[in-house]
Design goal:
eight-stranded antiparallel barrel; mainly beta; about 110 residues; about 0% helix; 8 strands
């Protein structure tokens, strides 16, 4: 057995939910895509769509930063099989976020 150097890949469609955030930001989907070695995500939620164009591997998980309606957000995530657990931090507050893999047609 070897120590796992790289985190499990993030690809495909994932549904997410989080608590203690304004309505419209509390649930939706992430679609992760990898192109030319760069990981991106399109986030769809009640408040609209957001492109995260720079998701980096860090430790055994991932980290990304983005801006939602003028608020800077940092999201740290770690995949564990068909689930991703993470923490979104904004304005000195942290919110747990949970993602579940969505089986798409043709899979």
């Amino acid at each position: 057995l070897y120590a796992q150097d790289k985190p499990e890949k993030l690809t495909g469609l994932w549904s997410f939910s989080t608590a203690d955030v304004p309505e419209g930001f509390d649930k939706g989907t992430f679609r992760f895509d990898e192109k030319d070695g760069k990981l991106t995500a399109t986030v769809t939620m009640g408040s609209g769509e957001l492109l995260i164009d720079d998701i980096e591997e860090k430790d055994e998980g991932y980290i990304c930063r983005f801006n939602i309606q003028g608020t800077d957000v940092e999201l740290k995530m770690k995949r564990n099989g068909e689930k991703i657990e993470g923490t979104a931090s904004a304005e000195n507050l942290s919110f747990p976020i949970s993602l579940t893999q969505v089986k798409e047609e043709g899979e």
